[in-house]
Amino acid sequence: MSLVKDWRAAKKRYDTAYQQASKQIKAVNKRLTAVEYYLHAMRDHLLSDKAHMRKIDAYLDELTPETIEDIQNGLFQELQELSEIEARPEAGIERALMDVEQILEAAEKLIARGDISASQWSQYREVYDRSAHRLMDVNDVFDEFCNKRANMESKLALRLDHATLLKQIAQRSRAVHTYLKDHDIEG
Fold first, then answer.
1. Rounded-to-integer distance, Cα 27 and Cα 32, Å
2. Residue 85: exposure state from Cβ atoms within 10 A (0-12, 13-18, ≥19)
3. Which of 45, 86, 98, 160 is a good FRET partner for 36, with 20 to 30 A between their CA atoms?
4. Residue 187 pLDDT level (bands cut at 50, 70, 90)
5. pLDDT digits (tens, 9 = 90+) for 99-133
6. Which of 139, 172, 138 is nearest to 3 (CA)?
7. What is the DSSP letter of 57?
8. CB–CB of 82/28 below 8 Å?
9. What are the residues whose beta carbons fall under 8 Å from the beta carbon of 176, sequence distance 6 or more?
10. Residue 124 near residue 103 (C-beta atoms within 8 A)
11. Hey, how many other C-beta atoms are within 10 angstroms of the C-beta on 180?
């Protein structure tokens, strides 16, 4: 599988977790609204007024004066945790990976042909350096995103996938470097 396909799969997994969290936030907010309505009814002594309580009828089985504060605290905690899953920044990692992968593929083709032309490899070095620097720049944005609340399961998974991609790039780059070194080609 290519680097770009691997990155797209990793992005999709994280984005799915983010979308699920967004849906869960809506459900938690509905429950919080019902809890607040119940608290107001309790304060105004309207718990026994069936017409007034009809608005939150779906939640009445779980809400009692004894448990209402615990339920409210639990919902606030759940809302806080769900809100921490934030949208992934569009840093440009996919484009940078695509560029680096294309360059590595070109180098691997040169190696397969046994090309030791200094001009070919000089051109490779220039293009690779620019692309590698661009990849490092977008990785800085990505790392900043990942470092906020880094212990979240979905972010950990995305970070591990990203690290695997960088490791693959490093291995492929090392293979090219070894070829250049073995054939005394500058680059």
1. 9
2. buried
3. 86
4. low
5. 999 999 989 998 999 888 888 888 888 888 899 99
6. 172
7. G
8. yes
9. 104, 107, 108, 111, 124
10. yes
11. 19
| Cα–chain center distance at 163 | 13
Encoding tokens for residue 122?
């000089």
Rg of the chain in Å (alpha carbons) = 27
85: left (phi over 0), alpha (psi -120 to 50) or beta: beta
pLDDT of residue 172: 93
Largest CA distance in the chain: 89
Supply 6's token pair.
């691997």
- Kindly tell me if the per-residue pLDDT of 165 is higher than 80: yes
List C-alpha distances in Å: 2 to 5, 115, 128, 132. 5, 24, 18, 17
**In sequence order, which ranges of the chain are alpha helices (DSSP H)?**
3-43, 50-53, 68-83, 93-113, 118-147, 153-182
